Amino acid sequence: MSRVYNFSAGPAVLPEEVLKEAADEMMDYRGCGMSVMEMSHRSKVFDDIIKEAEADLRDLMQIPDNYKVLFLQGGASQQFAAIPMNLMKNRKAGYIVTGQWAKKAFAEAKIYGEAVELASSADKTFSYIPDCSDLDIPEDLDYVYICENNTIYGTKYKTLPNTKGHTLVADVSSCFLSEPVDVSKYGVIYGGVQKNIGPAGVVIVIIREDLIRDDVLPGTPTMLKYKTQADADSLYNTPPCYGIYICGKVFKWLKKMGGLSVMKERNEEKAKILYDFLDQSKLFKGTVRKEDRSLMNVPFVTGDADLDAKFVAEAKAAGFENLKGHRTVGGMRASIYNAMPKEGVEALVAFMKKFEEENA
Ligand SMILES: Cc1ncc(COP(=O)(O)O)c(C=O)c1O
Predict the structure, then answer these.
(1) What does the CA dihedral 236, 241, 247, 249 come to, rounded to 10 degrees?
(2) Which cofactor does it need (predicted)?
(3) pTM of whole model > 0.70?
(4) Mutate to test the pocket of ligand 1, among 174, 178, 296, 337 (most ligand atoms within 8 A of CB)
(5) Per residue in 86-108, pLDDT tens?
C-alpha cells in the first residue's frame, strides 16, 4: 500500500486510523454479519451509530441543548436554498460576499426573497475579509449569512460579524471542527462533511430550535423543511448511513486527539510552517491578507502560470497530490485539514524549497 500526501480541498484526506477501522468492519460490523452499507437505517445497530455520532459531535462542539443536529443530504449547495426557504419570514436577508460559495448562496437566496449584499471583498479578488464590525444592517433582515472559511480564496473570519442582533447563519464546510466555536453565537451552522469530517454525501446542520418552524416559504419541499428532519431525528427518509458512520468515527478520532482546542493548536502549527515559508520565499507567495489567512486552505502562486503548472506536475510526481489551485483562480492551493499530518506539510515545504532552488 502506498499513500500520497493529499492536499485536496474536498473530498479530502481522512485519518488513516478511521479508514483502517472502516476497512476492518467492512464485511462484518461488530458481529452483525453485514456491512454498515447493507443494514436498515431503522435497525437498532444503525440507531446506535447515528445517536452516538450526534452525542460525540455535541460533546466536541459543546452544542447547547436548544440546538438540533441534523444529518442531511444534498450537500452544502442545497442549504443555499433550504436556508432562505426556512428562515426568510420577512423575505429579506443580508449576505456578506467573500468568495464563490457565498456568492452562490447569495444568488440562490435572491430566488426566494430580497437578498441584500452587506459587504463584499470582490474588489480585491476576495483576498481579504471585510471589516464587519459596524455594517449598515437593515432592521427587518431575517438573518445575516457568511461563509466562514473561504475554501477557494483561503480566507477566514477571525471575528464573527457584528450582526446587530440578527441571526447569524454560517457555512463552515471547510473549517468544520478545525477549532472550537461558540455555537450560541449562531442561529445555524452548517457544512458539507467532505472536507474535514467524512465522505461526500452528508451535510450537517446545527440549528437553534426556535428557527425550526412550520411556517416556511410556500412551496418548500417536505424534505427541505428543517422541521421534517428535526421531528424525525434525521430519519425522515433513508439518511446517508455509511457517511454518517464514518463521520462518527472521525468524531471519536477527534476526541481521542484531545478535542477541538488541541486540533486548533495542531492546525496553527501546521499552517505556520507553510505561511512562514511563503513569507520568506523569493519564488512563492501567498495571495491572502495576512490577518485573514485560513488555517485550512492555503493558496499561493509563483506569478508565472507556466511555472505554477510545472510545480504542480513535479509535486504530483513526488507524491504531493491535488495542489492545483481552483479553476477560477489558478496557481496552487494546499488544503491542510485536520487529518493532514504535520509531516505532510513539512515534506511539502521541503519540496517547495528544492523547487525554488532549481528554478531560481
Ligand atoms: C465553503 C463551501 N461551501 C459550499 C460548498 C459546496 O459544497 P457541496 O459540494 O457539498 O454542495 C463548498 C465546496 O467545496 C465549500 O467549500
Answers:
(1) 130
(2) pyridoxal 5'-phosphate
(3) yes
(4) 174
(5) 999 999 999 999 999 999 999 99
